[in-house]
Design goal:
The protein is of the alpha+beta class. It contains six helices and six strands, in the order ββββααααββαα. The strands form two sheets. The chain has a four-stranded antiparallel sheet, with no helix packed on it. A two-stranded antiparallel sheet has the order 5-6. Strand 3 (25-33) and strand 4 form a beta hairpin. Helix 3 runs antiparallel to helix 6. It starts with 8 loop residues before the first strand and ends with a helix.
């Protein structure tokens, strides 16, 4: 939750929600853990059925659902490391978004990086009426950030140059 991108992602009450660009246009997904069974429940809004399989693959990657937690626990225990059963390494929704977050997070706290990311989304993201409180924008695309004037969001000049080069 502390790392959630303001206006794009939200973690609250055991649920993860985010905006994203689906094949049919902007959409929202929500993922929560079932209270009845060892599974995650995915809910979609505004998403066309055409991209459903790719969307599910993205959610599986995001939550590391294709990992074998028993094999991982066995290896970690053999190495003398105590683990939480079923522990997984969270992935990312979008590679570009992850790279931008890495650039913004250099040499600053999680809170500062999240603030910078929120400013970036507010200024250069695409506004979206999701119908979900707090989810109001899509993350900016590379073309938009590549030509953006980044000086006004509090980003050091060298990092702005690096971000532009990344785009």
């Amino acid at each position: 939750g502390a790392r959630a991108i303001p206006k794009v992602e939200e973690v609250e009450g055991g649920s993860y929600r985010r905006t994203f660009l689906a094949p049919g246009g902007p959409a929202v997904l929500a993922v929560r853990r079932s209270t009845q069974r060892p599974e995650l429940i995915l809910t979609l809004a505004h998403a066309a059925p055409a991209g459903l399989f790719d969307l599910v693959r993205g959610v599986r990657r995001l939550f590391d659902l294709d990992a074998d937690p028993l094999a991982i626990a066995t290896c970690l225990k053999a190495g003398g490391l105590a683990v939480e059963p079923g522990l997984r390494v969270p992935g990312s929704w979008d590679t570009f978004e992850t790279l931008v977050r890495a650039v913004l997070g250099q040499q600053v706290s999680v809170a500062a990086a999240t603030t910078l990311c929120g400013r970036l989304v507010e200024r250069f993201g695409v506004p979206f009426r999701s119908g979900q409180p707090g989810l109001t924008h899509l993350f900016p695309r590379p073309a938009a950030l590549g030509r953006a004037e980044l000086s006004g969001i509090g980003l050091p000049r060298a990092r702005a140059v690096g971000l532009r080069a990344l785009c």
